[in-house]
Amino acid sequence: MNSTDSIVVINAGSSSIKFSLYDGAALELAMRGKIENLYAGVTRFVAQDAAGAVIDEHRWSGGAIDHAAGMRFLIDFAQSHLAGRRVVAVGHRIVHGGVDYSGPQLLDAGVLAQLDTLVPLAPLHLPHNLAPVRSMFAMAPQVPQVGCFDTAFHTGQPAAAQAFALPARITDLGIRRYGFHGLSYEYIAATLPQADPHLANAKVVAAHLGNGASMCAMRGGCSVASTMGFTAVDGLPMGTRCGALDPGVVLYLIEELGMDVAAVQKLLYQESGLLGVSGLSSDMRTLEQSGDPRAQAAIALLVYRIGRELGSLAAALGGLDALVFSGGIGENSTALRAAVCRDAAWLGVQLDAAANHRSGDGVRRVSTAGSRVPVWVVPANEELMIARHTLDILEQQ
Ligand code: ADP
């Protein structure tokens, strides 16, 4: 890897493709961008340099485009904006690696075929993650591609943390807890000891709070338990997902309310969480600015559930040495952090009000000097984690 070599990271969701470009062995961020509104409305593209200045923008006025057309556009864009760089590998965020992929993986036709068999485990995400891989194989087959899985970080959890209390014949079908947001937690696990070396072997609970939200218990940088389970709808209430739910509710919706699978799926994934409870919005900023009591009730429910999960995860760890906030809400909402820490005082958490309000966008400690449990904000950076994994795999070849 020399200074003109670069790694591209692709994070493709159901309606967007995000990309980042990292230069040289130091993986210096050079460029990032996204195509939004695939399939619906007006598809938009924007690319920015490392400082955030816009390099290029585009709108598809003729209507929305699909993943393949989006990838074709990105490859053309890259070719005209690489400025002498050589893309040596592409790393992809892939939501599910099943039980077999416990780390990043060089992708080929065989691995893709195996990942196709996991689509029923993540039908809303996995096909969109794999579409750009196929586009790259078709359009630039000489460039190595690496898959980085959101589940991989959790594969070493104790058996009890991975199990549902279901008959073995069901568990054997792969119906178990996997956990997600693993690349975010892995990045936090790598970053925290740099900020405070005492935390290298610590019992840490991290909360990744974005549109999707989860929490993870880590001991010595390894995942011990997580709030997300078989799918990414479990655990905390999220922007539009309900989080943990008595399975009896699903049976009731079907039997008594006559809802079919599609209606239940829509309710639990798209109409619940902050949006469902508030009846107003899935967006935390909007709710915080609203004077409507339903907005406050939605936030209060999220805070309550974070507190419950924190106690549960601390129990799984047998203690708590640090609490970490990450994701759009965790990094930016001073009020949410204050409420969670207020409720976690019993665990030895003491927030520093001034530090909590101090603006900043880097890794920072927001607890008092005397707080038995330090509280940190670590901005999420799954993309850099993917770039590091991709470089590692490249160097092993
Ligand atoms: P995703 O999971 O889609 O990557 P993000 O991590 O970007 O989502 O988080 C989006 C959430 O972060 C939204 O609910 C948004 O309102 C919230 N958020 C962003 N900035 C702020 C802020 N300054 N205060 C409160 N919430 C914020």
TrEMBL record:
Subcellular location per the Swiss-Prot or TrEMBL entry: Cytoplasm
Cofactor: how bound: Mg(2+). Can also accept Mn(2+).
Cofactor(s) this protein requires: Mg(2+); Mn(2+)
Active site: D150 (proton donor/acceptor)
Keywords: ATP-binding, Cytoplasm, Kinase, Magnesium, Metal-binding, Nucleotide-binding, Transferase
GO molecular function: acetate kinase activity
Superkingdom of origin organism: Bacteria
Residues engaged in binding ATP: K18, H208, L209, G210, N211, G212, D283, M284, R285, G328, I329, G330, E331, N332
Enzyme class: transferase
Record-listed Mg(2+) binding positions: N11, E382
Zinc-finger is among the record's keywords: no
Recorded metabolic or biological pathway in which this protein acts: Metabolic intermediate biosynthesis; acetyl-CoA biosynthesis; acetyl-CoA from acetate: step 1/2
InterPro entries: Ac/propionate_kinase (IPR004372), Aliphatic_acid_kin_short-chain (IPR000890), Aliphatic_acid_kinase_CS (IPR023865), ATPase_NBD (IPR043129)
Site residues (Transition state stabilizer), renumbered to this chain: H181, R241
NCBIfam families: ackA (TIGR00016)
Family: Belongs to the acetokinase family.
Role this protein plays: Catalyzes the formation of acetyl phosphate from acetate and ATP. Can also catalyze the reverse reaction.
Protein name (database record): Acetate kinase
Phylogenetic classification of the source organism: Bacteria, Pseudomonadati, Pseudomonadota, Betaproteobacteria, Burkholderiales
Primary gene name: ackA
